[in-house]
Structures are given as C-alpha cells and as structure tokens.
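Risk register update: the risk of archive-format incompatibility is retired. Evidence:
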Amino acid sequence: MNYPEYDVIVVGAGHAGCEAAAAAANMGSKVLLITMNMEVMAKMSCNPAMGGVAKGQILREIDALGGYSGIVTDKTMIQFRMLNKSKGPAMWSPRAQSDRMLFSQEWRKLLEQTPNVDMWQEMVKELIVEDGVCVGVVTNLGIPYRSKSVVLTNGTFLNGLIHIGEKQFGGGRAGEGAARGITEQLVSLGFVSGRMKTGTPPRVDGRSLDYSKMEVQYGDEDVVGFSYKNIDKPLHQRPCHITYTNQEVHDVLKTGFDKSPMFAGRIQGLGPRYCPSIEDKINRFAERDRHQVFVEPEGWDTVEVYVNGFSTSLPEQVQYEALRKIPGFENAKMFRPGYAIEYDYFPPTQLNASLETKLVKNLFFAGQINGTTGYEEAASQGIMAGINAHLTINGKDPLVLSRDEAYIGVLIDDLINKGTDEPYRMFTSRAEYRILLRQDNADIRLTEKSYLLGLADESRYQRVKEKIAKSEEIVDLLKKSSVLPDMVNPYLLSMESAEITQRTKLDKILSRPHITILGLMDAIPSIHILLQEFEKEFLEQAEIHIKYEGYILREKEMANKLHKLEEVKLPTNLDYSSIKSLSMEARIKLNQIKPQTIGQASRISGVSPADISVLMVFMGR
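Archived output:
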C-alpha cells in the first residue's frame, strides 16, 4: 500500500494530542492523529473536572487561541463554579464538573468535523529520524507513516506501570496497555529520560452512598463558562458533596502501609506534591485527624462517583474497608480501586520555547511527556505544539507567548528554563503578572494573535474589538460623570463604606472595596440609565480596569523593562564555560539550556543577577 504522507503526525489523543491535531489542521496542515483507542479520545483519566485555580485561566487562554477544550467543557458541564470570588479578579478561576463520557464523545465529534484531520488506531513503536530530522513514525503493524513533523503526546503510556498494593502490571491507564519502544529510541538519540508517578482514587456506586451525612456543594446560579463563544449552558446542575476522613479511616489505611508500593520503594518516580495520595497525606500530616473528601458525580446519566481526595495505591481490600469508615460511605460499593501509575518523561530543558526538541528537528513534545500534570497544562502545550509544528514546516517563526501575555507562557517558560523533577502543576503564584493574566481578559490578550494565525474567525475578532471599545467607553463615562452625596450615600452606608460630602466622580466611588458597578446601577436610577445599554461582560471589564488601574500600569511597566532583556540576543554556539566570571552553576546551566536571549538566561534556575550582569558586559551592554 502507498500510505498517505502528512504535514503533522500527532501521537496520542489525550488532551494535548487532541488540541495539537485541531490547531495544526485548522491552520491548514494535513494531520494524522494516531491513538491506541479511538473510543476514549481526550479521556478524563482522573477527576471529571476542568479548570480551577490558574487552570481555569489556562482553559480560557486555550479558547482565545482557537482551541476546543473550553467549548467541549461548556457543552458537557454538569456543574459550574467561579472560585475565589471573595478575592480580587486576578484570583477568580472558573471550574466545571463535566460528564466524563460526553466529554470524550464531544471531543471526537469536533475532531471528526475538522477538515484535514485523519485518524488511525494503533500504537506507535518508533520514530523515523533522518539526518537529525523527524520525518514520520512506524506503528506496531510495521506501517511507516511519513510526515514533515511529529508531535509526541504520550501521556502516562511510555513504559507505564500500574501499582495496586503489591501487584503491578504494565499499562498506560486502567484497561489500556503501555507504549514501548519510543523511550528507548529517544535515549539512543541522546535524550535524557526520567520516571514520574501519578495516581487516581477508587470509583464508587453513588446509589450506595448516604448523602444526608455529607455537606452539599451547589454550582453557581450565574454560569459563565469557559468559551468566549456563545455556547448553551446547562439549565440545571448536579450537586457535589463534601465529607471527611477520620481517625478510624486512617487506622485502617495504616494496616496496608507495609504493602504500599510507595513506602516499600517499588515506585521510583516522584508524584505530584500538591495532589498527594491519602496514605501520603496521613504520613506527612500525622497531626491532622481528618482530611477533606469531595464526592463528585461522573456525569448526568451514571451512578459512578469520583472520590476526590482519596487517591491511593494501597491493596484493594484496604481501600474498600477504609472507604466504608467515611461518613456517608458506610455501605459503599466500589466499582474499581484506586491505583498509582509510573511512567517515563523527558526533562523539558531539552526543548526550545516552541516545544520543538533541541536534538531532533521537527519533533515536538507536549503534555505529561514534559513532566506536567493536569488536563489543562497538557492541552495548553498541545495547542502550542500544534501551532508551532505548522509554523515550523512552513518556514515561519514560532509562536512564543511571554510571561506577561499568558499563563501558557509562564508554564512553557518555567519548563524549558527550570525543568522539573516532579509533576509540574500551574498555580497563580507562579505568575509574576497575575493582574494582567486574568480569566476575564484572555480574549483581549490572545484573540488577535489567534486571528492572525487563522485560528480565530472574523466574528470572534470583531467581538473582542467591540469588548475593548465598549469597556473603554464605559471607563470614560465613569470618569466624566459625577454623583451627589444624597444620591449615593444610602448605598455606600449599606455597603459599610464612608459617605461622601461633595459631588464625586463615579470612578472614584467605584474604586472603593466592595462597591460594584452593578450595585451602583441597582441603587441609583440615573446610573442605571447611563449604563443600561452595555452588556454585563463589558461593565465588569470596565470595573476591573478602574479598581486595579494602578496595579495594572505597574505590572505593564515591569514587563516592559524585562522585555528589553529579550532584545539582547545570545549566540547559539556560545561556550559559557569560557566566561570565567560566571559562577560554576551558571556555566553548567547556560551550556545545558543554551538560552536565546539575556531575558531567557535570567529565568534559568541557578543563574543569579550577578551572572546576568557578567553576560550583559560580555555582550557589550
């Protein structure tokens, strides 16, 4: 057979692979998406939820770039909550529970409707590398598929090993086999690999639970969603519940510690620090007599429940007995036990900012192969790898997002410059420009870039231009309009804010804590008349601008100063060991990573401000 040739081959159809395939195809590349099982594309292998702190911001950025994750989440959500509403808008983070099965089905449907995407169900065992360039893959059947570039998004499948108590068996996740051959080939090409570990909790039958013994957790009445497109939201939502472990639960779990693969040393890879197993929590936080457990439904039409906070790899009998000591779980029936999985990854310092590997041209890595954890982190790398694979093979400069442009930029910059020896998870604290990188303005930050790439359509671009223009118009109105004391003081007193004694501009009133633009409109008819023609989204954007104008300007000034360092290019062949004024650690790290600019060098772990000064002098600055 003469098998067709492709522009981009994507290996793996998890969250990273699906976004990579969609992005490259929508930009015009002919794409082949190869997966071991087409029935579970973009499967939610762990919790059935998208978004959360920092992750919600990433999801909105993916949507602004023209990705599908936000659309799929909005179409399949069973509950929506905006987290951290009591804090400033930089901390507001959307989160949604999704219907696990619908999520996978919707992703497949969208990809099937995307022109230029072909699919093939099989395992890839080998890359085709010629003269240092990746030009295709070979499948288990020996089929050679040739392409101009390849994106590897192997998730937890590379030499995956599942652990339950003293039992262990190969697999990429429960019920699916591991992928073998690729790690060994990459190592033979000069890549460095490592091992990481993640885990998942048991799933239980919701019909066997007593929800009256748990706290109920409802979704928000105002379902904002993730996509900037107008996606229909659910008319009703499913509640989640909260319960707690206790000392009796802990005592039962401890009976299995001698058979724990983690404590016995059978697992070599490091697990996610911020999502530890229940046995790890009991061991590390021995002074605590209880831990929170979130009881999350898996979908609209299933009784299966995800026991969030109870990730474990203890023997299945110990898991079962401990579960039944949790309030509300006394008669719990377990569908499947929790397990830990160990897998290969490749330290991401071996990548350029485009996610192309330094050793092999036109080969890109995205997702857990780079040492990250989380659907959102994987999907964001996927869309960037897909975009850059297309740009690279067409002779164009890659798209690289800076740290002040997107959380995606922070994530990739952290990975390629600092690397990671434990599963990397995004937090708002990792971003130094949090006020700029809010969930509400991801479209303003990124849609124009997406439009110029051919991903965002004309209607999305015009919508963003309207949002910018209208919010600026509202800000201008608020700065020009005044209010008298007798008009606004009753509202100010009701909000426990100081009264005014003279006519005051509305922007000054709005800049106070707890005072909102919608509250002013409800309380004062003249303000309602002034602003009633504007959409809620535009009003909230204007309010955030007024309240945080000083902070926004300060962060923009900081970002502009640092951008000047990005203008100082470093030679790619520079031997840093010859610059004796640099610290020994800096010489080693700089030679390893080979930064392209002084700015990138300044963000490498182990490179001090003094080292940067030496480099500036060396470059004649």
